[in-house]
Fold these 3 entries.
Entry 1:
Amino acid sequence: MVWAIVVAAGAGTRFGAQKQFLMLGGRSIAARSIDACRSVADHVVLVVPAERLHGDLPDDLEADLVVAGGATRAQSVRAGLAAVPSDVDIIVVHDAARPLASAELFHAAVAAVRDGADAAICATPVTDTIKRVERSLGRTFVKETLDRDALVAVQTPQAFNARVLRSAHGGGGEATDDAALVEALGHTVVIVEGNVANVKITTPDDLDRLEGPR
C-alpha cells in the first residue's frame, strides 16, 4: 500500500503569502498537488499550518486526512508520518508548491522503491555553472567552481520505504528534504529523471509565469 504526504504547512515567507492555498487555473495549488499524488497513492495526508487546521482552507482539498504541521519542514513531515498507518509499505512525500508534477514522476519514484531502493528522488541535471562561495567582511568571494556533471537539482515527489523513512525521522533531525535524512543513515537513495516543468512556486513571479498572460 502507498500513502502520500503533501507538505503544505509553510508560512510562505519568500512569497509573502501562503501560496499553497492560492488559486491556479481555477483550483488551489495544494489541491492540484493532492490530485497529482492520487496517481500512485491509496491515501493522502495533507499537512497544513496549525492555525488553518479547523477552517480557512480552500473547499477543493480532497485529502483523506488533514493534520497540523510544525515549525519546520521536517517537523511537518513527521506530523504527516504520525498519521500514516504502521503497515504501509511505501510513503511518498510531495511539496504542495509543486502542483505540476506529472503522474510519470510519481510512478517512476514508487517503482524504484518497489525494486529495492530505500528511497527514490526526482532530479534534473544542473545546467548553470555553480560556484562555492565564502562570505567575509560584507563581501562574497568565490572559493571554487563545482563540477556540474556531478550535481543534480532535486525535486519532489520523493518515494521511500516506509520503515526507512520512519527511521530517518526518528532522530528528530532537520533537512531541506527527506532524502538527506535517509542519506545520513547510510541508506540507498536513487535518482529518477525529473522534469523541468515540475517547477516549485517560490515567488509571485513563479505563479505569474504558470498562469500565463492575463
Entry 2:
Amino acid sequence: MTTLAERWKGLAALPRIAIATLPTPVERLAQVSESTSAEVWVKRDDLTSPTYGGNKVRKLEYLLGDARARGADTLITVGAVGSHHVLATALFGAREGFDVHAVLGPQPAGPQVLDYARCDLAAGATLHPVPSFALVPFAVHALALRLRMQGRTPYIIPGGGSSRVGALGYVEAGVELAAQLEARALPEPRAIHLALGTGGTVAGAAVGLAACGVTAEVVAVRVTDPALANKVALSRLVHQLVADLRARDERFPDIAHLALSRIRIEARELGQGYGVPTDTARFADGLARVDGIALETTYTAKTLAGLVRDAATRPPRTPLLYWHTLSSADLTPLLARAPLALPRAVAALAR
C-alpha cells in the first residue's frame, strides 16, 4: 500500500503500477550548506529506480496504471529531443508491454541532448520529430488517429507527465516527505525548492505537503517558458487534483487554496531560456558535485541555484530542502546498444 493510501484508504483503488523504489532518502548537503550558511538537505529522487530515476518515475506509476486500466496498448507522449520524460516513458512503457511513440520538438544543443534521443531508440520508442512545438498538438492528434485506424488503443501522456493523473505521483511524494519529517529524518525546512518545468511535480508536491500539514514554502524555480507553466496553470492542476482525491475519499482535506498559497514562483534562474545554461547554474552544479550530486544545467542546477539565491536572504542555519529530480542511473549500457547516428530530422532538433 502506498503512503498516500495508508493515510486515506479510499485512495487505495487509484490505478497504479509500482515501478519506483520508495521512499527515496533525504541527506544533508555539507558543501552546499557551508557555502550558503544555510542548513541544506536534499530529497534524492534521482534514486527512484535503478533502471532510470528522477521525478518522471513517480508520475509514470499512475500514468501507466491509468493506461492499463483504460485498455491502452500504445503510449504517445511529447517532449524536447533531449527529454528525460520521453526516455523514462520509453523505458518503463516498454517494460510494461506498451508500444511507445514520442513526438519530439527542438531544444538547444548540449553535450547529452542527442544521447537521450539515441537512448529513446535503444529503448524501442518510435520518434516523430516536428520542427516547432507549435506543431506538437497537431502531430499528436494525427498520430493518435493513425494508430486508431490501425486498430491500436493509444493513451496520450502530456509533456513531463503533468496531467491530473501524473501529478498524483507527487502528491504521494509530498506525503512521503511529510512522513520523513514526522520521523525526524531531517529538520523541517522553511522552503522546498523544486524545478518548475511542466508543473506536475510542483502542483502534486504542494498538495501532498499541505494535506499533511507541512507549512514549508514551495519554491517553484522556473526553467521553462512562462506560457508552459504559470500560476494559472498550477492553480487549475491543484484544484483538479484536490477535487479528484476528495471524490475518491471525502476525508482528504479541501486544501487547494492552502496549497496554492504556499507556492512561490522563482523566475530569475530561467536566464536566456529553456536549456540555456546560466552562470548561477554552473556555480550550483560545482557545489553539488563536491557533495556527490550530479546536476545538469537545464533543470536541476537552475533549481539549486534558486536555493542558493534564497539562502542569501535568510538567517544563517535556516533549513532548506532541494528536491533532486534528475536520474542518477548509468545510461552507458543503453547507449552501448543505441544507434550511433540519429535520423536527420531528429538530429536537426538540437539547435
Entry 3:
Amino acid sequence: MVRFRDLGLNPGTLPAGPANAITDVPGVRVGHVTLISGADVRTGVTAILPHGYNLFRHKVPAAVHTLNGFGKPIGFEQVRELGRIETPIVLTSTLCAPRAADALITYMLRDNPELQSVNPLVGECNDAFLNDIQGRHISEAQVLDALDAAAGGPVAEGSVGAGTGTACYGFKGGIGTASRRSGDYTVGALVQTNFGTRPELRIMGAPVGQRLADVLLPQSQSQPPAGSVMVVLATDAPLTALELGRLARRAGHGLARTGSVMQHGSGEFVIAFSTQNQYAYSSLQPVDTVHRLNDTLLDGLFVAVVESVEEAVYNALIAATTLHGRGGHVLYALPHESLRG
C-alpha cells in the first residue's frame, strides 16, 4: 500500500504518530470488511472502537458536527444531547446504514444482555456509482466481522471497508487516516471519502484537479453523485464534549485544504471522541471527577485536527486503486506520477 508520504511529500508542521493513523491514539482500533463480488458489488464496512473495554459500561465523551446535512447518519441526536458514545462507530453504504445499526445492537447485546436501550452510531456514504446499492449487500455477519477484526497499528487504506466503492474528486476514493502529535497528546483522523469534483482538488495548495481536469475521468454515461464524507476524530487529550465539538468543527478546515466546498448534495459529518474521562455505567457517585485540558493547549489540537484530516484525504486518494463496477462504471486511481517533483 502506497501512502502520501511515500511520494516524498510531507504536509503540515506537527509530527505524525508511529503509524500516522487514528490508531496512534492509545486503545483505538479499526476493522474492515471489504465486499467485492461479481460485476456490481463494491461495498464494505469499517468499524472504529475507542478502546478494548465494554463500551456501554465505559462510555467515552464525544461530539458530532454537521458540515452539510445531506446524509443519513444514525445516532447523532443522543450524542448531541448527552456528549458521549456508547457503541463503536460503524461506517458503510447509505442504504445499509439501518442494517449496520441493527448489527451494532446485536453486538452490544452480546456483552450486555440486560440492555433495553442503546444508541448505535453509524455513518454512511453513497457508493452507488460502482456498487449495486439497492441490493443492500451488507449483512449483520459482515458488520460483526469488522467489529471483531478491529486492531491497532497500521490501518488499511484506499479501496477497502466502507471506502470500497467510493469516489473522491472524480478519482477513486476510499478510507484514509493520519495522526498528529501536539505536546503530550495525539489526534487521529479517519475519513470515508466520497466527495468533491475534479476541478476542486488541491494538494498542498497546488491546483492538481485543474491540471488533471481531462485525465482519467470516471467512465460512465453519468458522473458520480455529489457524495459525502465521514470524518472520525480520536484523541487521548482529556477533553469534554464541548471541547470535542470545537475540535470537530475544525475538521472542515482540513477538508477545505484539499479543495472541498461542501456541495449541496454532499453529506459531510464529523464524530470526535476522547479516550479519557470515561463514564462508568454503574457508578453511584453523585459527582464524577473529570480532567480538563487547559485552554491554552487547545490551539495545538486544532492544528492537529486540520493537518490530520487533510493528510487522511490524501492517503485515501493515494492508496486507492482503479476499480471497475456496476454498469461498467470505472473510477481511476489518482496517478502518482502527477504529484512527484
